[in-house]
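User: Please predict the structure of the protein below. I'd like the answer in structure-token form so I can feed it into my own downstream comparison script.

Assistant: Understood. Taking the following sequence of 184 residues as input:
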Amino acid sequence: MAPSRSHVVALANEALNEVRRDYWNELRATDRLPDAKRFKDARWALLKNPADHTTTQARTLRKLKRAGGAVWRAYTLKEALRAVFDHDLDTLDVAILLDRFSSRAARSRLKAFVRLAKTIAKHRDGILAAATLKINNARVEALNNKARLITRRAYGFHSARAALALIHLTCGPITLSLPHEQIA
């Protein structure tokens, strides 16, 4: 299935987190432990949707903006990619914005975002197809998660057929009525 909006944004979040982690490790390695401790709390401010920030997270983000640097550039790149999918754009606009993002990310000199730009270029057609058709694989992933949960619950069953029967019973169109609910 084509990569959905959520998968692309999740890849951007992973790239941002990698840049954040590298900077945090750099602070720790250079004996700037007080700065490293203050910066450690920036993770959720960076990864969270800006509309959902607490006042503390918004303050942290303003401090990062004033400081600039690689972490702020990574954050702006992540938000730029998220903005591509936030609006109801037609396929041509999404294609143009994805290409602009990929170009900007490739020139960012941030390894994680250069890698992200290559990944987006590799899967560009699938991303555009998902944007055009307005489809995603959320239902498939939900069913898969439900099957995993049922399989864990079925631990100890004597056969795979019993676990499969439980999945069918739970997820299938079978409707059972209890004996006291049956009308004679």
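That's the full token string. The mean pLDDT is 84.
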